[in-house]
Structure formats: C-alpha cells, structure tokens
Design brief:
The protein has helices at 2-34, 124-130, 143-153, 173-183, 191-204, 217-229, 243-247, 258-266, 276-296, 305-316, 318-322, 332-336, 360-386, 406-417, 422-428, 431-437, 481-497; strands spanning 50-51, 54-63, 70-79, 82-87, 98-101, 106-109, 111-116, 133-138, 160-169, 186-187, 208-211, 234-236, 253-254, 300-302, 391-392, 452-455, 469-474, 477-480. By secondary structure, it is α/β, with parallel strands linked by helices. Strand 8 (133-138), helix 3 (143-153) and strand 9 form a beta-alpha-beta unit. The N and C termini lie far apart (71 Å). Keywords: Hydrolase, Membrane, Transmembrane, Transmembrane helix. This is Amidohydrolase family protein. GO terms for molecular function: hydrolase activity, acting on carbon-nitrogen (but not peptide) bonds. The chain crosses the membrane at residues 9-27.
Length: 508
C-alpha cells in the first residue's frame, strides 16, 4: 500500500514538473518572440510616397565619385529607378514629368548602414528611408528578412537589403540547443553538420555567413572551407582564434572595430581597470601592425563606434543617454524588453546598466574600464585609417540605444571625430559598402540605381549635414519633407498603440 502511494506521489510530482516545464517553455518562448517587435502594427506607407517616373533635378551640386568634392550646377535625370543622364543645362523634359530645383542643394548617394538588426520590426525599414538610408546589411538574418528583401526587390517600399545568415556557433551539449533557441543561432559541432547547415544557408538565399565569437578553431576552419565551395562569404565576429590565425583565415570582414580591441586585450596580462594608461600604450604599440595585417589580407571592418561610445553613459547615466536618441520611433517591444532577461533598453531592463550592487571602488573601476575601452576604439580606428583599411559605417541597430536610421547619422559623426575626414566618412557609408556588396548603387553615375539623397547643406563642410534631408530617392519612389513627417507620425502612432511602458521621462 505504501509503495503504491509513493508511486502515485512520484507520478504526480513528475506530471506537475513536466506540465510546469511545458508552461514555462511556452511562456519563455512567447517572451523571446515578443521582444522581436512583430506585434507592433506595420505602417502602410503606400500613400505617403510618390512613384518616380521621370524626374529631373536641376542645377544641383553632385558628389564626386570618390566623395572628395561636389560638382556644381548639374542636371540629373532619373527614370524608373536609374540615373539616366547627368550634364549641365539639360534639355527641358515633358510637362508631365517632375522637376526638382536643386539650386544650392547637395545630391549624395543613398546611405548604407552596414550593420543592422531588423528583428521582426518592419517599420524600421521606413525609419531607414526617412533618414536617407537606402541600403542596409541585415547581420543576423532569419527567413522573414529574406521575404522582405524579395518584396523590396519587387518594388516594395524600403531600402535594399543584404542579408547574412543567423550567427554561427559551435557550443557543445545542451548549451548549444539553448543558444539556438534563445539567440536564433545556427549551432554545429562537426564538419558534417557544418556542411548541412551551409548548404541550407546557400539554398535559402542568404548573401553571407555570419561568424560569431563562440566558434572553436576547428569549426571556424571547416566553415570557411565549406563556404568557399558554396561561394558564399564569411564575415562577422572574430571566433576563438588569435589574430595571427585570423588574418589569413579567409574571413573577409570584421563586424565591429571592437573585435580587434578584444583580441588585443587578451594579450595584456594586467587589469585594464587598474592600468588604463599602460594598456592604451600597449594598444598604441600594436595597433598599426594589426591594421597593416588587416589591410594586407583584404579584410574590411565595420565601425559601430557610436555604440561603443555610448556604453559608459548607458552604464552609469542611462536616462540621460536615452534622452539623446529618438526613442519614440524605436519599436516599443524591443525597448521594453522582458522579465525573462535584460533584453530591453529602459532602466532595469538594460543589460549595459550598472546594477549598483558592488562597492564604490568597484563602480569606479568599471567606469575606468569602459572609458578606456572607448579610447581604445578611437586608437584602433585611427590606425585602420592610417593603414588604408576599408571601413564601412555600421550601427548595430536595435541594440540599445541604436534607433534604426537615426543612429547612422550618429555613427557618421563618431567616425568623423575618430580620425576620418568628412570625405572618408561619406565614402564609408556610400561607395565602400556598395563596392563591397558589388551593387549598382553608391555613386552618382549614369546607369547606376537612383538611390539618392538631396541635402540642403554641404556634408563635406560638416558631417552633421547628412541630416539636412530634402528628398530621398529609392527604387522607383521618392519622398519629400512632408511625406517624411507623415511617415514618422504614423510610426509614432503605431508605437504608442503597442506601448506598455510610458517613455515621456526619456523623451526630450
């Protein structure tokens, strides 16, 4: 009798545990899906844009192909999404075709954000457009991004898209499955599984393979070799190899300047928080050699400097930092996060924020570390510039507090302050990424796509002038200031409908 009761208790406990685990899994999965932003109403911008047809921009200053100067008094004719003609004193076009007065205005190629994370926040595509960003590289792709890309290629309303696979990892055991679930990564630990995964990535139509940090040397090498067979490039983080191995590995791009800093820090055998000046001296003595090797092996580097610069403020002055960004346009479900884990942007939900649990001395050491980290980014950037490394402007959008579209202008300012001339900065957001992608955009040139931005102020005089947007041309469409205002208002309204946490105290 006692054995029967014990057996019933065991069965009951196991049943409760199994049911509880299932309920928890369903809840946790729902929370992880929620913070992707899919539940926010998608704005229909069809009535807020104008189809191009044939447009002539009269008497405008156009950016030279190397971004060094503007050519004055040019007439640019665009038709059906292509640049048809460039010359002075163009013949008049037909009366039913649109003319835009470009007098005292500046025409530049559409901007590119080379490090974006859309998640499932489709309104972000519009945020890019209204900020003059006509091409993005989605750096952690999922199937829905491929659908959006196809739609945009079929004359949808949004920027052109380059889509990498989700991040590759090689985590053993249950940790690998957990990472796949929570981070949407592609995890494999042997060459056979690597081949299956890369074959699927190629079949699905991804443009590149995204390498992540947690990849061991064997799987890194296998991934590179198999990717070459499929003629698909590998880019992203630097995995678990040293820089000497990485230089000649075959990976063609580093997704953050900070990846180089992390590898350099591994060689510094003292506390950086306690020896900040000594570390910066150590980096300075190595930075040029690192940059030289990066250049010699034709490896490009994406910037994400402004995110790094924000970290000390996010850690210790989060509310003030949030007031600097256009928070009302960020998807509310992304910024609100989840009680499951600190995945949001707001106080108590932001993983960068200092938790205040340690001593004042520990807090001071933490601040010193992050300020040193930012200084290190600047040192490395200057070395990359000095050694002619191809730098592409990228933001890591939808990582706190990178608001889609807007954050690229912050990034351009950071690049300009970090050692790039305004010419080099514009090049990093126009010519460089388009040449890297082998696209037909990025220059104001006959036959190229008419992905263009008309500015009221000269960005070569002040890089902040990339924000002085008068018109944006993309695909077969055009938007002006009034339409930009309407699109932003619609996104703000959609966000407010789906907001659970009020943000007035963080909005200027």
């Amino acid at each position: 009798m006692k054995k029967t009761k014990l057996k019933k208790w065991i069965i009951t406990i196991l049943t409760v545990w199994v049911v509880g685990s299932i309920i928890y899994f369903i809840w946790a999965d729902n929370e992880l899906q929620k913070v992707l932003g899919k539940s926010t109403e998608v704005v229909d911008a069809t009535s807020m844009v104008t189809e191009l047809g044939t447009v002539q921009i009269k008497n405008v200053n156009i950016l030279y192909e190397d971004c060094s100067r503007f050519i004055p008094n040019q007439d640019v004719v665009i038709k059906d999404g292509k640049i048809l003609k460039i010359s002075q004193h163009q013949d008049s076009i037909q009366s039913n075709e649109k003319t835009i007065d470009g007098t005292d205005k500046y025409l530049i190629p559409g901007l590119v954000d080379s490090h974006a994370h859309l998640k499932e926040s489709k309104n972000d595509l519009l945020l890019y457009l209204v900020n003059g960003v006509t091409y993005i590289r989605e750096m952690k792709g999922i199937p829905i991004h491929l659908e959006w890309k196809k739609s945009l290629n079929d004359n949808g309303i949004g920027p052109r898209m380059f889509v990498t696979s989700s991040s590759i990892t090689s985590i053993s055991g249950i940790g690998g499955y957990f990472h796949e679930w929570t981070r949407k990564s592609i995890n494999y630990t042997n060459e056979n599984d690597a081949r299956k995964a890369i074959s699927k990535i190629s079949e699905q139509g991804y443009d590149a393979i995204k390498m992540y940090t947690q990849v061991n040397p064997e799987i890194f090498k296998a991934t590179i070799n198999i990717a070459k067979e499929y003629k698909i490039p590998v880019l992203g983080h630097i995995p678990e190899v040293d820089l000497e191995t990485f230089y000649t590995s075959g990976q063609i791009e580093v997704a953050h300047i900070e990846e180089l800093i992390k590898k350099n820090m591994e060689k510094f055998e003292k506390s950086i928080s306690k020896n900040p000046e000594e570390y910066l001296q150590f980096l300075s003595s190595n930075a040029n050699q690192i940059a030289k090797k990066i250049n010699e092996n034709n490896i490009s580097v994406t910037s994400t400097i402004w995110l790094m610069e924000s970290l000390p403020e996010q850690r210790f002055e989060l509310k003030s930092k949030l007031k600097e960004v256009e928070l009302k346009y960020a998807n509310p479900k992304i910024i609100e996060g989840t009680s499951l884990h600190k995945l949001g942007w707001l106080p108590n939900e932001n993983s960068y924020e200092y938790d205040g649990k340690n001593t004042p001395e520990a807090k001071e050491l933490s601040l010193t570390f992050w300020e040193t980290y930012v200084s290190a980014i600047h040192i490395m950037t200057k070395a990359l510039v000095a050694n002619n490394v191809t730098i592409m402007a990228g933001t890591d959008t939808n990582v706190s507090p990178m608001v889609a579209g807007f954050s690229l202008h912050n990034e351009l300012e950071s690049l300009s302050k970090s050692g790039l001339t305004n010419q080099q900065t514009l090049y990093s957001a126009t010519v460089a990424p388009n040449e890297w992608m082998k696209s037909n955009s990025g220059k104001i040139k006959v036959g190229f796509n008419s992905d263009l931005v008309l500015l009221t102020k000269n960005p070569l005089k002040d890089i902040k002038n990339t924000k002085s947007i008068d018109h944006v041309f993309f695909n077969k469409y055009i938007i002006d200031n009034a339409q930009i205002t309407a699109i932003l208002k619609a996104i703000e309204d959609a966000n407010n409908k789906n907001r659970n946490v009020e943000i007035e105290e963080y909005v200027n």
